[in-house]
Design goal:
By secondary structure, the chain is mainly α. The protein has one domain. 57% of the residues lie in helices and 0% in strands. The longest helix is centred in the middle third of the chain and has 14 residues. It is globular and about 40 Å long.
Length: 120
């Protein structure tokens, strides 16, 4: 007597569409949930600088509001210094701005400015 095999469902019936949250990169999701850069780095097992690069990238793409990274008064000061010094290095900008500004704030502000002033 032949052994009956269980008929498998076609792949399309087993496949679940990814939820919207599944498509959000983990660094972005964690940052939006209020985790610090240091906490994200520890959770993701990556260097802090890499997390900062991800966050600045999300500002550049418009996936993250620059004001969630750089407070408005600092954003204004950074952009003033950026226009005054031109497209100089982040280190030069930070030196001009002082120790109250960090590289993530500066990089995010510049990425924001470049995004909103990008030729269409």
């Amino acid at each position: 007597m032949a052994k009956k095999t269980k008929k498998e469902k076609p792949v399309s019936e087993n496949f679940e569409e990814p939820s919207e949250i599944d498509n959000i990169p983990p660094t972005l999701l964690l940052f939006r949930e209020g985790f610090t850069v240091e906490e994200i780095a520890k959770h993701q097992l990556m260097p802090i600088k890499e997390v900062e690069n991800h966050i600045a990238h999300f500002v550049a793409t418009g996936d993250l509001n620059v004001l969630s990274v750089t407070p408005k008064p600092k954003l204004i000061e950074i952009l003033k210094a950026y226009h005054k010094l031109g497209d100089s290095s982040l280190t030069a900008l930070r030196k001009a701005l002082g120790d109250d500004f960090n590289f993530l704030e500066i990089r995010s502000a510049i990425n924001y400015w470049k995004r909103v002033n990008k030729p269409k």
